[in-house]
Amino acid sequence: MRQRFLLDPPRVGVYLALILAACHAGAPPSLLPATAVAVERDSVRSWVLATEPRNNVLHRFKWQFQDDRSAAGGRGSARIAVPDSLRFDVAGPLGTGRSAAVVVGDSAIWVDPEKSIHDLVPDYDLLWAMFGTARMPDSAATLRGLDEGAGRISWEYADGPDTVSYARTPGSRSRFFAEVRHAGKVVGRVETSLAADGQPLSSRLTVPSVPARLDVTFYSSVPTAAFPPDIWRPRQP
């Protein structure tokens, strides 16, 4: 059973930290080709490691969220400490609607404002994918994949009703895809463009059930030796 959390839809900024989603009708084609075969965990591990950040980094970005009722945008930052710690800070125009969160792996350590928890969301595969990072599968997951050569790889984890799929395509601006399905229905899909050094340039999260779309444009990615300990603590009133 994949871990789920609750969020308040009016807090658009929190969508960046915890990724809104729910079951829906209809689904786009799978990321995994029909010719995919069963693969060993060691193969998947090597594919995942190729996407993981190698150093601590501070990302700064612009974000734009739109659903069928409204649109909002602003700026934010994400501090990633290897191997799997993430601090998010986002806000709207003139600093309105500030939200923050710390995520370690697939668990939220804290989310501020706490009262924003409201609606079911999936785990954090989609969140990490927005930075071009894949997650390792659970030990019980069934693994399939296909390495087509020249850097074009697709793989998938199936665990009960949940399926997580990834795909990578080569190029000077390579692309990284992730999709989460529950009971065959798409929860959300991410497409991230990456620079030659693997840093994210832009990312789009599509949530068909709302429907909603979150676009993130990265304008700075700075390697950082270490973050102050206070970064990982909740904001003080």
Word description of this protein:
By secondary structure, the chain is mainly beta. 9% of the residues lie in helices and 46% in strands. A 13-stranded antiparallel sheet has the order 2-9-10-11-12-13-14-15-3-4-5-6-7. Strands 1-8 form a two-stranded antiparallel sheet. The longest helix is centred in the N-terminal third of the chain and has 9 residues, at 41-49. The radius of gyration is 17 Å and the shape is globular.
Strand order of the largest sheet: 2-9-10-11-12-13-14-15-3-4-5-6-7
Structural class: mainly beta
Rg result: 17 Å
> Approximately how much helix is present in the residues?
under 10%
The count of helical stretches stands at 3
| Percentage of residues in DSSP E strands | over 45%
Measured distance between first and last alpha carbons: 35 Å
Mean pLDDT: 83
Count of beta strands: 15
Looking at the structure, what is the overall shape? globular
pLDDT < 50 runs, ≥5 residues: 1-26, 115-122
Largest sheet: 13 strands, antiparallel
Give the SSE order as H and E letters: EHEHEEEEEEHEEEEEEE
